Amino acid sequence: MIRVLVIGAGTMGRAHASAYAVMPGVKLVGIADIQADKASGLAAKWSTRAFPSFEEAVQELGLAGIDVIDICLPTPLHKEYVVKSADAGKHVICEKPIARSAEDAAFMIRYCREKGVRLFVGHVLRFFPEYVKAKALLDQGSIGKPAVIRAGRGGGYPIGWNDWYSDFSASGGVTLDAMIHDFDYLRWCFGEVERVYAKGLHGRHQAQLDYALVTLRFRSGVIAHVEGTWAHEGFSMHFEIAGTKGVIDYDSRTDTPIVYKSRRRSETVPGVIVPESPLAQSPYYRELAHFMSCIQDGSDPLVTAEDALEALRIALAALSSMSSGQPVLIDADSGALVGAHSYRGVMS
Amino acid sequence: MKIGVISFAHMHAFSYTKALLQIDGVELAGIADTDAERGAKYAEYFGTTYYPDYRELLAQGIDGVIVTSENARHKEHTLAAAKAGVHVLCEKPLSTNIADAQEMIEACKASGVLLQTAFPVRYNSTVIRAKQLVDDGALGRILAMKGTNRGRNPGGWFIDPALSGGGAVIDHTVHVADIMRWISGAEVKDVYAEVGHLISEKPIDDCGMLTMEFENGVFATLDCSWSRNKEYPTWGDVTLEIIGSQGTISVNATSQKLHVYTDESGYRHHAWGDSMDAELIRDFISAISSGAAEASVTGEDGLHALAVAVAAYRSSEQGRTVTMQELD
C-alpha cells in the first residue's frame, strides 16, 4: 500500500485526489491546504483527512504514515515544498511546470537525488490517449517522416489562488504554464529543440489576456508551431502532424464525444455548455498510477524530472525570444543532468 | 470590352477565364501561351483565338489582360501590356523579386494603366465578413493573428525556382500576408521565418512558418507549407484567427463545404461557397469600365505581400529577424 499525501486542494489537487481515491494499492491519507475549507471539502468527498498545512499533515500522519507527497500548488511554491518533502524523506510528485526558473528546477532535481527520494513531474499530456495514439502512429511510420507540426491549447484566463496566474514572475503566463505541455509532448515525439522564436501578449496588453505563438525548430529539421491562449472562451487543445506521407490531426473542439447543455438557469451563467471526454481511467489516473508503479518497482518513468526541466528550458527560451525579438538557441550540452542515477524500489 | 489572357501556366487562368465569360459585355479576345499545345487547347475550349506570341494578342486593341504566366515572366508580360496601354490583372506573387515588382508598378503608372494584383482571398465572403466585424469594432483593438495557407505541392514550374522564385514561401505567404495587412490596416515591420525542405523529393522549400510583427504592435504567424498530402480531403486552406481586446474571430475561408465520401476517391471536401475568383474578375472589369484611377487591390499591395516572402527567405538564410526597411 502506497500512502499519498496531497498538498493543495485546487483544480489539480482535486484531479489527483479523485484518482488516488479509487486507485488499487494506494491510500489517499490526507489533503493539506492553507485554505482549510477547501481541504476539508475535498477530504470529505474522498473520506480522507484534511490538514491546514504541510507541517500539520506530516506531524499528524507521522513520517511513517506517508510514502509519497504530491504537490499540487502554484508554480512559485514548488521548490519550497519539494525541498520540504525531500527533507521528510518522501518521494515527490510535483505538478508542472517543475519551476519558474531552470536554476530552481535543476536544484530540485539535485536535492531530491541527494536526499534519495524520487521526483516525478506531472506532464500529463503524455498520458492523454489521443496524444499517445498519435505518437504510436507516428512511430509506426503511418505518415512517413514528420515535417510540419501545429499544436496548441488554451481557453479563458485562469483564476487561481491569490490571482497568481496574473503575476508573470510567478506563472510565466500561458507560455510557461500551459504551452509547456505541448513543448514536452513535441520533444517526446520529435527529439531535441535547436532554436525557438516566439511572440506573446505579455508586456503588450495590460488586461487579463495572454496569447503566445511559438515556433520550434528541432535538430531533426522538423518545424513546430505552438499556440497558447488565455484569450478564448472554453478550454480546447489541438494538434496536427503533417509528414511526408500523411497528416494526423486532432481538435478537442470538434472531436467531442459528449456535450451537455443545460436549459436550467444557474446562479452564474445561463445555458452552460460542458464538453467532456469520458474515459474509464482519466489521463491523471493513468499518469499517477504509472508514477506509483515506478515507485514500487524502481523503474524509470515515461516522463522524467529531467524531461520537465528540458520542457521548461524551451518555455524560457520562448519568453527570452519574446523579449529580444530574435531566435533563441537551446544549447546542446544541457543533457548533463540526464540519466546519471538509479533508484531502488522502496516499497518492495 | 475586350480582355485577353497571357498564359495558362498558372491554373487560376482557367477559373478566371470562365469568370470573364460570365460577365455581360466582356469579350474574350484571345489566349497567348508559349506552350502551343496548352494555349490551343484552352483557346478551343473557351472558343477564342490562340496567339503563340503575347505581343500579337496585345496588338488586338484589347482593354485588359490577365497575366497568369510563371512568376518569373510576370514582369515581361506586364511591361509589354503597359507599353501597349492595356490594363493588367497579374497573378500573385506579383513577381519573384522586389526590384521587378517596383518596375512593373512604375511602368503601369507611367502608361496610365491599372495594375491589379490577383488576391482572390480578398473577395472571399467569409474574409470580407471578418474585415467588416473588425471595422465595426467588434474585436476592440487587434492584438494578434494566426494564419495558415497550406496546400499540396503543385509540382511543375512551381518547384523550379528559376520560374517560380521559390517554393511554398513565395507561393503561399502572399495571400494571407495581404489579408493580414488588409484587416489590421497596418504594414509588416519585421519577419522571422523557419523554412525547410522536408516533404518533397525535389529540392524546394515546402515548409514555412513565418512570424511577423506589424507597425502597430500586432504580431502574427503564418504557416505557408505545402503540407497537404494527396489523400487529404481538400487542396488546402486559408484560415485566420484574430485576437482582439474585446473578442476573437476564427476564420476558415474554405469551410463552406460538404463532406463527401465515395468508394472511388475516398473522403473529399466539396466547396459550395461563393466563387472568390469570379468576384475578383468582376472587380477588375468594373475598375476598367468605371475608369478607376487605381485597382482596388493594387500593385503596391502585391509588392508589400511579396516583400514579406522575400524577408522570410532572408530571415531563414541568416537565422535572424529581418526588418522590412532592410529590403529597400
TrEMBL record, chain A:
Signal peptide per UniProt: none
A Pfam family recorded for this sequence: GFO_IDH_MocA_C
Domain Gfo/Idh/MocA-like oxidoreductase C-terminal, residue spans: 135-328
Membrane-spanning intervals of the chain: none
Domain of life: Bacteria
InterPro entries, per the entry: Gfo/Idh/MocA-like_OxRdtase_C, Gfo/Idh/MocA-like_OxRdtase_N, Gfo/Idh/MocA_Oxidoreductases, NAD(P)-bd_dom_sf
Record domain Gfo/Idh/MocA-like oxidoreductase N-terminal: where: 2-123
SUPFAM superfamilies the record matches: Glyceraldehyde-3-phosphate dehydrogenase-like, C-terminal domain, NAD(P)-binding Rossmann-fold domains
Family note: Belongs to the Gfo/Idh/MocA family.
Protein name: Dehydrogenase
Automatic annotation (TrEMBL), chain B:
UniProt xrefs under InterPro entries: Gfo/Idh/MocA-like_OxRdtase_N, Gfo/Idh/MocA_Oxidoreductases, GFO_IDH_MocA-like_dom, NAD(P)-bd_dom_sf
Superkingdom assignment: Bacteria
All residue ranges annotated as the Gfo/Idh/MocA-like oxidoreductase N-terminal domain in the record: 14-118
The GFO/IDH/MocA-like oxidoreductase domain, residue ranges: 128-249
Gene3D superfamilies per UniProt: Dihydrodipicolinate Reductase, domain 2, NAD(P)-binding Rossmann-like Domain
PANTHER family: BILIVERDIN REDUCTASE A
Protein name: Dehydrogenase
